[in-house]
Amino acid sequence: MEARKRLRWTVIWCFILMWWSLGLTDGSEQKPIRQSVKKPNIIFILTDDQDLHMDSLSYMPFLKEHVADHGTSLQRHYCTVALCCPSRVSMWTGKAAHNTNVTDLHPPWGGYPKFVRQGFNGAYLPVWLQDAGYNTYYVGKLLNAQSTSNYDNPHAAGWTGSDFLLDPYTYEYYNATFQRNHDSPISYQGRYSTDVMAEKALGFLDDALEVDRPFFLTIAPTAPHSNVHIKDDTAEQSMARPAKRHEHLFEDAKVPRTPNFNPDRPGGASWILTLPLQNQSNLDYNDEWYRNRLRALQAVDEMIDSVVNRLEKAGMLENSYLFFSTDNGYSIGQHRRQPGKQCAFEEDVNIPLIVRGPGIPKGYRTEIVTSHIDLAPTFLSLAGVSEAEMTKYELDGSVIPLHVLDSMPSEQPWPQEHVNVEMWGIIMSEGRYGYILYPNHTYKALRVIGTGYDLLYTVWCSNEHELYDMTKDRWQMDNIYDAGSRPFNIAMPTAGLSNQSPHASSFTSTGQVLSIANISTTISRLVARLDALLLVLKTCKKDECRFPWSALHPAGGVRSLREALDSRFDEFYRTRPKVQYERCERGYLPASEGAMWDDGMSFRAMEHEVWTGP
């Protein structure tokens, strides 16, 4: 009898120990025995048309609680094309839009068919991540013009599991069509699109956690994009539609009345100069448009909460990176504009990027300059792919130094101070007052941000120019381009530089720190440098995109606008070809875009010509 009791208790203790080792003594405390790990997981939440400059992030408490408070907000992150499809293609390929030649939403200039035709279906991020040993999953909108008629011609490559939104129902909040893996499309008429997406995302997350491989999961809701109903080749755009449970929220919210909101005098260039002052009915309508964007984001915020809770429950949160961003920014009323995007103004190009994960500074904000073409190399780096290995992908972007953002020494600053912004084609604003097509919305723009300077320089296809000094004109209201002889001062701050202002020092090519003095120049000398920089960037590839000053000064010694303003280079910059257009085009046609950069335009080439003759 005693032997039988001992045997029974031995069996009971074996079951208890087995349950304890599996972490199943409490169903709410499940711990995986999979993922014996290893490489980190990466989750990327990508919204559609979300603003940074109209306070939308302030209406997402779960994003703040789970991501921002535990991670880093990159305040100077930019898209390089302020339009959905070309922005996403640049993001997934790590290439500037002039190198993808996907420049619009639909064929012949853009869309999913153009992405495939350009050869990127076998040469973009998910394919590379699979080569690095990752399972890859995607839920939501991938690219415009991926539709119920072409989704399998061919299927989007590189995804272990996928559930794509398809046109013509992508932007219908209560009539979405999804297409899973290689299955036929399914309509979810009557169900709220973001909620359906959350279910699918959590399903893929469960699948990913059950496999002994790291994973990359993208969740791409269409919120807070407007609702678009397409019928008989006609698109009816209306306000974003929130879930029923959120329809009553934020009744008093209004578009922030910043100085550039519906200003008394018009500004900008091209068609923007023709915009009328908005009347009260227009303002009231646009405020409601704004409120519905905020309401539509609530389901996204709840989805973030669900994803984080699922990771935490599985014990995988601390080995996962969570990224939050959007494809492009958005504006309502700024510069008298109706709801929309596509301009080079800060509202359209400066966008959210928030990251949490192992080793990421917590509750931190940084102003290093980054862009969407930096995301692919950054994801690859987190997946263990070295920069040397990445060279075969011919990336134009840089790996963002996420783990040292709070400890960057001032004597080794982040070298990137520029963003190249491109646009081609036409522009159409949204809403009841915005159904006007403006042609010739083609331009090259340049954001340059360093210690003592913060500039936007734009050249339109009409050869109009804009230049804004955002150290004094944050809202981009005063175009100073024509004030050629006006003094322009770059002043160093008198207080010590913080590690959040990485443009603290300049260097020789050998790394020797140069002393920095205040610089007094003129608008015309400044524009000459900006024009040369833009000339490089508008056709750059790979290292030229990352280090454009080195293309202009291959012998070294110039790594910033401040250094390029040295008077020794005046003649060189004065004689460089200018950025200009021969004509406006709907897409990227180099023959219409004036002078192009080549190696013979560098300062070294000019010196050689001066000393030895042509």
UniProtKB/TrEMBL annotation:
Annotated Sulfatase N-terminal domain ranges read: 40-385
Q: Point out residues bearing the modification 3-oxoalanine (Cys).
A: C84
Q: Which domain of life is it from?
A: Eukaryota
Which modifications occur after translation, per UniProt?
The conversion to 3-oxoalanine (also known as C-formylglycine, FGly), of a serine or cysteine residue in prokaryotes and of a cysteine residue in eukaryotes, is critical for catalytic activity.
Matches recorded under Pfam families: Sulfatase (PF00884)
A GO molecular-function annotation:
glycosaminoglycan binding
Q: Which family does it belong to?
A: Belongs to the sulfatase family.
Output the PANTHER family linked to this UniProt entry: N-ACETYLGLUCOSAMINE-6-SULFATASE FAMILY MEMBER (PTHR43108), SD21168P (PTHR43108:SF8)
Protein name, please? Answer: Arylsulfatase
Give the source lineage, highest ranks first: Eukaryota, Fungi, Dikarya, Ascomycota, Pezizomycotina
